[in-house]
Amino acid sequence: MSGIEAPEVSQLETFPNPKPERDFSIEIVCPEFTSLCPKTGQPDFGTITFTYTPNQLCVELKSLKLYLQRFRDQGIFYEAVVNRLLDDFMAACRPRRCTVAGVFTPRGGITTTVRCSFEAGS
After folding, report:
1. Cα–Cα distance, 121 to 85 (Å, whole number)
2. How far is residue 114's CA from residue 122's CA, in Å, rounded to a whole number?
3. Which of 26, 46, 58, 82 could make an SS bond with 114 (beta carbons 3.0 to 4.6 A apart)?
4. Positions marked catalytic
């Protein structure tokens, strides 16, 4: 292992939503996501997309990038990582709604997409 620290929700920085009275959506596409398959230790590659409607806070992009890079040495299944990303994102900025999608590159001819969502009040 390269000594990269584990991802922590505390890495995700935020800033005040400039229009908290209005619903608008933000889509962040991260096409270079990498983690490790927990069964084989081989790298998994994917595109992670965050789509959210902010409440009082927005996520700061550089902190999100650095947070995602820490998954590089983490052995974690697709389903677990996408749910973890949603949980940490929700904890950091508490949006009105959020969907996280992970579209992973094919392995053995199979493409996997994992999507999870949260909506306040549901």
Report:
1. 20
2. 20
3. 82
4. 37, 44
Q: Quick check: 94 and 56 in contact, CB under 8 A?
A: yes
CA 54/CA 104 separation, integer angstroms: 26
Q: Provide the residue count of the chain.
A: 122
Is 67:35 a contact under the CB 8 Å cutoff?
A: no
Contact status, residue 112 vs residue 47, Cβ threshold 8 Å = no
The type of residue at 23 is D
Q: What angle do CA 31, 33, 36 make, to 5 degrees?
A: 150
Q: Which amino acid belongs to residue 110? A: I
